[in-house]
Amino acid sequence: MVRSVTCSDFESSFAEILFFSFPSESSILHRLLLPVSVRCGYTFYIQSDNQKKQGKDFGYRFLWRLFLLQPVEWYHYIASLINPTHQLPDLKVGEMYATVADYTKNGSFWDFIWGNVTLGQKVSLLWAVNAGRFVQTAGLFLLGSYFSRKHLFISTEKNAAFWVRILIISAISFAPLYTLKELIMKNDAIIQQSVGTVFDMWQKLAFTLTLIASFVLLYHYSRFRFSKAFNDLRYYGRMSLTNYVSQSIIGAIIYFPIGLYLAPYCGYAISLLIGIVVFLLQLQFSKWWLSKYKQGPLEHIWHKWTWIGRGK
Question: How far is CA 298 from CA 5, 249, 304, in A?
């Protein structure tokens, strides 16, 4: 007997394809972009190199940026220097996530805002520790800085050959790493949280490098690099911080009880279409904003905080 295909079947199949193709981010839009940490490493290189050409050292300013980015990590690091027996507290991420779910569901705007700037930030950070993102973020930052120091994003035949090798190695590595991760995740919790996390990070790195290499090679060999639509992506990249944060705000308004609360009614396919529309709107906004100002709004604030005391 042949079973009829339902909308539920389509959504289930679409979800599997979606999460296999973009395994490490719940947002398709985020995953299609150059990973934030890699881009941060690239940005650090540009700022450091510009200061070096002026005979200045950007190291101290970058250390200040690290304090701005990761106050919790620096607290524990300094505490461990003072007291060698200092240990991280019990994370209790699951319990905190339950609290986050409660104030999110009640639909109170101010409870939602306050919860996300307080407990929400703590949960996000501790989840990153549990999921391996704590170390991965630093690693991706260093990788982006290394690529930039070697000028590997410049379009040359030598660099193209390098990215072809990266594409081949990472694409071939992804399938077995992903399969091993799935097998390991069927074991006990302690194995999942240790070895499973390791393989999860490696398969995500392989897929990330596959995306980056594909994009670089597409730009190098294709006529797309001369097209207006392709070149317009640079506006989105120049406002990546603003766009990244605004995506979260827009998503909260669309899906959460504080806004339209469309989460129960939007499947994966509809959510993908919404993400594409949001991306296109952000792209147009970025073009308009940069036609009037040198930097995006959040990029401007970040720049002022970085150069605080220098009048820049």
Answer: 46, 14, 10
* CA–CA gap between residue 271 and residue 268 (Å, rounded): 5
Rounded Cα distance, 11 and 28, in Å: 16
Instruction: Please give the Cα distance from 158 to 170 (Å, whole number).
Output: 19
| Spatial contact of 31 and 22, defined as CB atoms under 8 Å apart | yes
3-state secondary structure of 42: helix
Contacts (Cβ under 8 Å, ≥6 apart) of 3: none
| C-alpha neighbours within 13 Å on the C-beta side of residue 268 | 16
Q: What does DSSP assign to residue 27? A: -
User: Cβ neighbours of residue 205 under 8 Å, at least 6 residues apart?
Assistant: 136, 140, 170
Contact status, residue 108 vs residue 143, Cβ threshold 8 Å: no
Rounded CA-CA distance 106/113 in Å is 12
Nearest of 262, 46, 54, 230 to residue 154 by alpha carbon: 46
pLDDT tens by residue, the chain, 312 residues: 444 445 555 555 555 555 555 554 433 334 434 455 555 665 666 666 777 777 776 655 655 555 455 455 456 556 766 777 766 556 787 888 888 888 888 878 888 888 888 888 888 888 877 666 777 777 777 777 778 888 888 889 999 999 999 999 999 999 999 999 899 888 766 677 677 777 888 888 899 899 889 988 988 877 666 666 677 888 998 998 999 999 989 999 999 998 999 988 988 889 989 999 999 999 999 999 999 999 999 999 988 888 887 766
Pick from 117, 115, 92: which is nearest to 104 by CA? 115
Q: Beta-carbon neighbour count of residue 173 at 10 Å? A: 17
Return the SS3 of 25: coil
Both structure tokens of 246:
């605004």
